[in-house]
């Protein structure tokens, strides 16, 4: 190894150039990693839900909405209903909310349910988009009965598996995502 005092100015310049090049290469790798992370976050979807409630003397109406509050599209890979924590598979040709009402024991009551949309496998919910999943109308005139029927809906949940454009997987589960109530 040479003595540092015997280094020529050309040697010092070469060493300094090498150190600067290595630092620049390190900063470039770091910037690329930060940029890649930023790009992934800039297309991340975030599913949420809300319940829009309408009250009048004759009925209570509840609309269940699925929302994408993220800034990227949600590529839905699977959607499942659960009743009392058990997977519930509605008849593929039936009306899922009506079948859920049956599973909750509300079929004989004055409850009207209709399905508007349910994201299926390979469907996409764009950023800022919302989808009306179902409407439930509780028609019994006795407010205590209506409140009981509405409380039964708490036994039903929806689980949606989805991913972003990069293939990162996410799960939305109504039991873990408190909903907002509007109306």
Describe the fold and architecture.
- It is built from 3 helices and 10 strands; from the N terminus they run H-E-E-E-E-H-E-E-E-H-E-E-E.
- The protein has helices at residues 9-41, 96-103, 143-152; strands spanning 47-55, 60-68, 74-83, 86-88, 111-115, 123-125, 130-138, 156-163, 169-173, 180-182.
Short description:
The protein is of the alpha+beta class and 183 residues long. It is built from 3 helices and 10 strands. The protein has helices at 9-41, 96-103, 143-152, and strands at 47-55, 60-68, 74-83, 86-88, 111-115, 123-125, 130-138, 156-163, 169-173, 180-182.
Instruction: Give the helix proportion (percent range).
Output: 25-40%
Structural class: alpha+beta
User: Total number of β-strand segments?
Assistant: 10
Give me the number of helical elements: 3
Q: Which stretches are low in confidence, meaning pLDDT under 50 for 5 or more residues running?
A: none
- Largest sheet composition: 5 strands, mixed
Overall, the morphology is rod-shaped
For the terminal residues, how far apart are their CA atoms?
80 Å
Write the layout of secondary structure elements.
Elements: H1 9-41, E1 47-55, E2 60-68, E3 74-83, E4 86-88, H2 96-103, E5 111-115, E6 123-125, E7 130-138, H3 143-152, E8 156-163, E9 169-173, E10 180-182
Parallel strand pairs: 1-10
Antiparallel strand pairs: 1-2, 2-7, 3-4, 3-6, 3-8, 5-7, 8-9
């Amino acid at each position: 190894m040479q003595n540092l005092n015997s280094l020529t100015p050309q040697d010092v310049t070469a060493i300094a150039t090498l150190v600067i090049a290595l630092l620049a290469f390190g900063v470039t790798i770091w910037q690329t990693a930060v940029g890649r992370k930023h790009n992934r976050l800039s297309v991340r979807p975030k599913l949420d839900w809300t319940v829009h409630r309408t009250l009048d003397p004759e009925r209570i109406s509840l609309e269940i909405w699925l929302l994408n509050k993220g800034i990227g599209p949600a590529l839905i890979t699977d959607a499942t209903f659960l009743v009392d924590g058990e997977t519930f598979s509605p008849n593929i040709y039936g009306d899922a909310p009506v079948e859920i009402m049956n599973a909750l024991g509300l079929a004989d009551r004055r409850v009207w349910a209709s399905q508007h949309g349910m994201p299926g496998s390979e469907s996409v919910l764009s950023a800022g988009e919302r989808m009306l999943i179902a409407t439930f109308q509780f028609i019994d005139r006795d407010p205590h009965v209506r409140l009981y029927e509405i409380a039964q809906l708490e036994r039903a949940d929806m689980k949606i598996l989805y991913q972003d454009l990069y293939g990162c997987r996410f799960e939305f589960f109504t039991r873990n995502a408190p909903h907002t109530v509007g109306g």
